[in-house]
Amino acid sequence: MWANLHAPPGDDEGNPSGRVVILCHGMKGHRLWGFIPRLARELAAAGLPALAIDFSHNGVAGGDAGASGGPVYGDTGMMKRNTIDRERRDLATVIEWVHSGPDRRFAPGTRIGLWGHSRGGTSVVLNALDNPASIAAIATWSAPAHADIYKPRQKRRWREAGEYEWLEGESGQRLAMGVCFLDDLEARRDEYDLAARSAGSNVPHLIVHGEVDLVIPSENAERIASARPSGAETKILLLRTGHTYGIGRSDNPAALGAAIDGTVGWFKRQLSSDGDTK
To answer: Which of 4, 106, 193, 212 is the most buried (most CB within 10 A)?
Structure first.
């Protein structure tokens, strides 16, 4: 796994603020993709260290791959072996490292926020459900209500072909997910029902979604929000944009700014030990 730590100005050593937001990319993303560096910079500017990670099997080659922000998939075989459970465990490892890492970059008791886009949001919610005492707050952008977003006919073809293949438009590469991904979805079907399981979660949750998201329709956000306990702090932000918040197009550039501003403000308030948001 690779990661970039975006520290607040003047915070060159250690983590005196006692806070960090871990950023998790989506299905075809990496830590330098799209809006992730901008979100990380704005979190850092607001005094919140941001740790942007690559999941171990995202297929991106090397620590500096994708430095320009474009997709570079140097290990497509690794991507083919990826699963939701693997990404969930990757994130759990990072959380444990923050709490007890040998280099003590982060002080004991550091308050952790988790952010994830699309499938990264699935790992964020799962970790908040698995170990709520370790997580102070979460924010998800375009997360599904259930990790299994695939239709029966897609799954049938997936098994017949031994993989789920698609052409990546920007890089021109043929990418695929293996049957292990599908096996994991079906073996942990109840675990991956994020909306149903959110009924038992009190971890503060900001839910951001595009109203014209054609990949994960906005009803997914509403299902998660409506399932949350009445006493749990929940905020839903619906924006006039699509799944990638205008990255690669100019459908509504103001929507991305609103999503970032809302997310920074959310974590600034939720990760403060005394409620001070200044």
So the answer is: 106
Alpha-carbon torsion, ordered 66, 39, 206, 258, to 10 deg:
-120
Q: Determine the Cα–Cα distance for residues 239 and 221; give it in Å rounded to an integer.
A: 12
Q: What total of structural domains would you count in the chain?
A: 1
pTM to 2 decimals?
0.91
Per-residue pLDDT of 151-184, as tens digits, reads 999 999 999 999 999 887 766 788 899 999 999 9
Percent of the chain clearing pLDDT 70 (strictly above): 87
Burial of 73-96, coded b for 16+ CB within 10 Å and e otherwise, reads: beeeeebbebbbbbbbbbbbebbe
Whether residue 166 is contained in a domain is answered as: no
Q: What is the pLDDT of residue 258?
A: 96
Can you give the residue range of the structural domain that contains 215? 3-147+192-270
